[in-house]
């Protein structure tokens, strides 16, 4: 009987300790959220690689829960695709896509190098 009573007491102590730990974690997490400052950043970049034909770029800015930006790239068919987007805390991600042909665009040509390797017929033992 002592063994069964001890198991019940240990189980209750474990449950109380687990509940206390959970409440402390929730309080700590809530406390951290209150002290985060407002988010604010801006960045941009542009890539133009004549060797590979990779042309793309992006710019974005954020202040608090408002984010806006755009990115662009040159598709394989010679069209420039530009995606303009914005996000606010309530509406989610909203984007508009525009495609326009690039006048005079020529895709980079792939260069294939062929190397001749001599082939020996016959076996020497």
Write the layout of secondary structure elements.
Layout: H1 2-34, E1 40-49, E2 54-63, E3 66-74, E4 79-88, E5 92-101
Antiparallel strand pairs: 1-2, 2-3, 3-4, 4-5
Task: Describe the model.
By secondary structure, this protein is of the alpha+beta class. It contains one helix and five strands, in the order αβββββ. The longest helix has 33 residues, at 2-34. It is flat and about 85 Å long.
Summary tags:
26% helix; single chain; 5 strands; 125 residues; 5-stranded antiparallel sheet; alpha+beta
Task: Tell me what portion of residues adopts beta-strand conformation.
Answer: 35-45%
Structural class: alpha+beta
Kindly state the percentage of residues in helix: 25-40%
The outline comes out as flat
Cα Rg:
31 Å
- The average pLDDT score comes to 78
Would you list the SSEs in sequence order as H and E?
HEEEEE
Intertermini distance: 88 Å
| Biggest sheet overview | 5 strands, antiparallel
Would you count the extended β strands for me?
5
Individual helix count? 1
> Any low-confidence stretches, pLDDT <50, length ≥5?
5-9
For the largest beta sheet, what order do the strands appear in spatially?
1-2-3-4-5
């Amino acid at each position: 009987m002592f063994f069964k009573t001890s198991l019940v007491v240990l189980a209750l102590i474990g449950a109380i300790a687990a509940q206390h730990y959970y409440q402390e974690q929730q309080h700590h997490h809530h406390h951290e959220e209150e002290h985060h400052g407002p988010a604010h950043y801006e960045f941009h970049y542009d890539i133009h690689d004549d060797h590979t034909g990779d042309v793309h770029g992006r710019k974005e800015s954020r202040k608090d829960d408002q984010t806006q930006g755009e990115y662009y790239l040159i598709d394989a068919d010679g069209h420039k695709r530009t995606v303009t987007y914005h996000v606010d805390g309530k509406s989610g991600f909203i984007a508009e896509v525009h495609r326009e042909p690039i006048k005079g665009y020529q895709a980079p040509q792939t260069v294939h190098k062929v190397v001749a390797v001599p082939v020996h017929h016959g076996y020497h033992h």
